[in-house]
Here is the input.
Amino acid sequence: MEYKEYVVKKGDTLWEIARCHGICLQQLLAANPQIENPDLIYPGQVIYIPVKDEAPCPPGKPPMCDKPYPPLRVECPNRDYARLLHEDYAGAGGEITAIMQYLYHSFACCMRYEETAELLEAIAINEMYHMEVLAKLIVLLGGDPDYTDACGEFWCANNVAYCYCDICRQLMANIEGERAAIAQYRRHMEQINDRYVKAVLARIIEDEEHHLQLLQKAYECECKRRD
Here is the structure.
């Protein structure tokens, strides 16, 4: 096995370094036994990248923060709050759109951009959990988790930004989608006066902010290097 040196830059994580070099985290860790804590690397540190894969990567966990979710409960039923959550759930920029968009982009780019496709699929899986959480909150608030937005309009596949055959446009669409989702969740936190619901939305935002960082790094790896 041959190795090349890589100097850690500010903002790097081992997971992102591994993805950008076409290997999995376990292979990177095996090549760097001197790293005692995978979550603690620093700018200027030299690590070693395996040049050639020896084995396929085992599946990783969905990209979400290592922090538990608050209990799913509400202070009392409130259909107005349930209606607001429908926009996060099945609105044009809601979780259903995010799931379908990430999956489409993953399917469309899997042959040419395998690592990025795996990332997009993993984010979609995390967004599915967000969808489940929102559905349960809607029920607790007295609503019905059908696939409609705050105005009662059914979700439509036209909400997906397909960006056919262009991985850079797809990644940028997802970056913009995450930013919009974060802003919308924050607006709804201001409008909802239920401490339990607000705590769950704040936790979802943490995942979305993590997705945003991963997508920005993926864009740098796949697109900036072309410039």
